[in-house]
Amino acid sequence: MRHNFTTPQQREIRDRSGDICEAGKFGTEAFYGMAPGDTCHRPAEEIDHITADALKRTRIQSIDEGLHVCKIHHKIKTASDRKKIAKATRLDEARVGIRKPKREWPKRRFGT
After folding, report:
1. pLDDT tens digits for range 12-59
2. Burial of residue 9 (number of CB atoms within 10 Å: 0-12, 13-18, 19+)
C-alpha cells in the first residue's frame, strides 16, 4: 500500500525547500549519487520519500521523511530504490511460500 504525503505535509516540505532541490541536504548525498558535502541548486519539482515507501511499510509520521527534489535526482534515487524493492519483494514472497526456491540443474554424467 502506498503512503503519500498529505497536502499540508507537501506544502510544508515545499516551504522548507524554498523550491530549491534538497538532494544532498540532511546527509542524503549517498542516496542521490553525490559526493559528501555536495548540494543541488536546480528548481525542485517532486517530493521524494527518503526511505522508499515500499521498503518502509508504515504511515508517514512527519515531513522529515520527505525531500523536495529536482526530477534528475528523483530519477537517480528511484532507479536505486527499485532494485532494493525488488529484492525485498522476492524475499517476502519466498518467506511466505509464494515463490518456490530455484531448483538446481541436474548434473551431467560424462563417459557413461
Report:
1. 999 999 999 999 888 888 888 888 888 899 999 999 988 887 787 777
2. middle
Question: Distance from CA of residue 7 to its chain's centroid?
Answer: 21
Could you tell me the three cell numbers for 31? 542516496
Grid coordinates standing for 43? Answer: 528548481
Residue 25's contacts (CB-CB under 8 Å, 6 or more residues apart) are 39, 67
Cβ–Cβ under 8 Å, residues 70 and 45: yes
Question: Model-level pTM?
Answer: 0.73
DSSP state of 102: P
